[in-house]
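Q: How would the structure tokens look for this protein?
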Amino acid sequence: MDKMFLKQSACIIATLIMLILLGCSCSCCKSQSDRLDDSATMALDSFRQCRYIALTKGVGMSGRRSEQYDYANQLSRHATVEQLAEIANTDTSRISRLWAFRILLKKADKQVLDVLKQALNDTMPVQLMSGCERYNEPYNQATISVYSYDHEELKLSEQQLYSIDSLIFFGYMKKYGFDNVVLVNLKAHPIYYPTVAKEADKGNEAILPLLAKYQNLNDRQRINKLLKASLKENGEMTYSCREAIRTWSDPAFEWYAKAVCQTAVKKQGYYIDDYLPLLWAYPATWSYQILEDILSEKKDLASDNEFTCNKEQTLDFLAEQVRTQPPHPLFRPLYDKYLMKKD
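A: Here is the predicted structure in token form.
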């Protein structure tokens, strides 16, 4: 009887131990995202309903504030960085994954590099919205777009920035092509230069914004060759060329600034904002005359086209410039005549 009782007791104890171990095992199998609190879960579910990621706070023709920024604030407050990293890597919704990555970037979390590494292998399309523009990008490119858009606001360490930039440069752009918008944010590290110079010699105009950052006197011929080819092909200023000259306004490139500015002001429908940095960078008779014509309204093309910037936008630009540096002596009469009167 005692032996039977002991056997039964042993079986009961063994069963209890197995149940306890099984319970612990099931608990351990739960993912981080399964342990989200109600507020974080609600935010995540809301993201899963979204068909695009809103890069800008204002979206659509009306510029209404996107509710995605409210979901992001809620998820940021109620989810841990470990949970965010898991969402960024494994969630079924790519919009949720992009937002989790975006939040981790803003938190300057160390996991962002590993998340980005994994994302670069994903080429499935995803929709983005910037202002009233809606478009598709492969997921890997979309993660880089998010990083580039928020770049100036991020509080990442110099080492984090260098690691992410190097991953994008060598792990993505060397494989898929160089994106001039991304290159604008990259610093001119020596490790990139051999590839940058090689791309320039191949005639890759997109590399110009980064090449100009090195301000290597020996590159002036390289840059001029790309500027000439671009002007011949496009007949007008391109984004890459503009950013290169804004970065390095070397006298060797004044011919390009003069050509595109003088061509632009003869047309209707151009954005004067795009050309003002070039006019300001090269104080000369030709640039003074263009600014004088705009400010005196001798060539007010805005009345014929709503997209042509007018006198007020030029004044605002010049006023912003003189807050940080005095006007060039050649431009001083413009300041005295138009900006002093405005003030």
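Residues 178-248 form one domain.

DSSP finds 18 helices and four strands in the chain.

Upvote if useful.
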